[in-house]
UniProtKB/TrEMBL annotation:
<dbReference type="InterPro" id="IPR003737">
    <property type="entry name" value="GlcNAc_PI_deacetylase-related"/>
</dbReference>
<protein>
    <submittedName>
        <fullName>Unannotated protein</fullName>
    </submittedName>
</protein>
<dbReference type="GO" id="GO:0016811">
    <property type="term" value="F:hydrolase activity, acting on carbon-nitrogen (but not peptide) bonds, in linear amides"/>
</dbReference>
<dbReference type="GO" id="GO:0010126">
    <property type="term" value="P:mycothiol metabolic process"/>
</dbReference>
<dbReference type="InterPro" id="IPR024078">
    <property type="entry name" value="LmbE-like_dom_sf"/>
</dbReference>
<dbReference type="Pfam" id="PF02585">
    <property type="entry name" value="PIG-L"/>
</dbReference>
<dbReference type="InterPro" id="IPR017811">
    <property type="entry name" value="Mca"/>
</dbReference>
Length: 319
């Protein structure tokens, strides 16, 4: 796919609030990827909008305590929307649904053949059709920074991969008045990041923290089967310190009660240990239209702020 060349970015003007848009595939993804970052920025006065592409209606119930809950089973989509509303309130963010049908995660049969995705679901829609609502929302909210998933979706769920695709399409096209006419005035974001939630350095740190605490590490098998890929180490460009909001992140994640076991592995490592061994949420800077001359010199070789290079004129938001 050949993407259009993006327009010049709309840099923050003096006194203008910074704006962050986080594009996610399903309800609960926003709480497991970048939630503490968002809570930190909300606390600083940044406007944050979470965009959820699907309703997650084809997801499974992953909390053993709710597997036989008749109220949940009777209307899982409504339950997931209510869970999302609670998480949004906890994080203090704004929220928008794109309204696409969840594609589900098809499992291969005994011969390794996966069934076709459901007709009309998010992942099989034409890219332009799937991208248009996000382009409209970018032009309406006018984010300076967008976060999304990498080309593999973070993991290869069809909806995550399609979320990556429409995010890239929107970033490249939203500033071009000839693209997607009739979807409000053009707006060009300045930067786009990929979430790097579970990369090897962080997993090793959390694994070692478990051993130090004398608890069984849920990451041992994961690390034992880890395959290093060329370029993986270079993906980590940005480490946002947000440990003061790890508790907020966990509360938002637990609000998605159908999807999260509160006694599960995500909560094995204590917050104190997490704050000590890995106090950041991590990202890959995938696109930047901010000139090198305006970028702050990153400490330790990493950016420490998604808005690096954008704060010089946005005097109302502190770093």
């Amino acid at each position: 796919m050949t993407l259009p060349t993006p327009s010049a970015p709309h840099l923050p003007q003096p006194g203008e609030l910074l704006r962050l848009m986080a594009v996610h595939a399903h309800p609960d993804d926003e709480s497991s990827k970048g939630a503490a970052t968002m809570a930190r920025y909300v606390n600083e006065g940044v406007e944050v909008l979470v965009v959820t592409c699907t309703g997650g209606e084809r997801g499974d119930i992953l909390n053993p305590a709710l597997l036989d809950n008749h109220a949940v089973l009777a209307d899982l989509p409504a339950v997931r929307r209510a869970e999302m509303a609670t998480a949004v309130e906890i994080l203090g963010v704004q929220h928008a649904w794109l309204g696409f049908p969840d594609s589900g995660l098809p499992e291969a049969d005994e011969n390794g053949v996966k069934p076709d995705l459901p007709e009309g679901c998010f992942a099989v829609l034409p890219l332009e059709e799937a991208s248009e609502p996000l382009v409209r929302l970018v032009r309406e909210f006018r984010p300076h920074v967008i976060t999304t998933y990498d080309e593999n979706g973070g993991y290869p769920h069809p909806d995550h991969i399609r979320t990556h695709e429409i995010s890239m399409r929107a970033f490249e096209a939203a500033g071009d008045p000839d693209q997607f006419p009739g979807t409000r005035d053009p707006w060009q974001p300045s930067k786009l990041y990929y979430h790097l939630t579970f990369h090897k350095l962080r997993l090793v740190a959390l694994h070692d923290a478990c051993l130090d605490e004398g608890v069984e590490s849920p990451f041992a098998d994961w690390l034992a089967g880890w395959e290093d890929k060329p370029g993986d180490a270079e993906r980590l460009t940005t480490k946002v310190h947000c440990s003061n909001w790890f508790a907020t992140r966990d509360a938002a994640l637990k609000a998605h009660a159908t999807q999260v076991d509160p006694d599960g592995r995500w909560f094995t490592v204590s917050l104190d240990s997490q704050s000590r061994v890995w106090p950041t949420e991590d990202y890959q800077l995938a696109r930047s239209l901010v000139t090198d001359s305006t970028l702050a010199d990153p400490a330790g070789g990493y950016e420490d702020d998604l808005f690096a290079g954008l704060r010089v004129t946005a005097a109302s938001v502190t770093s």
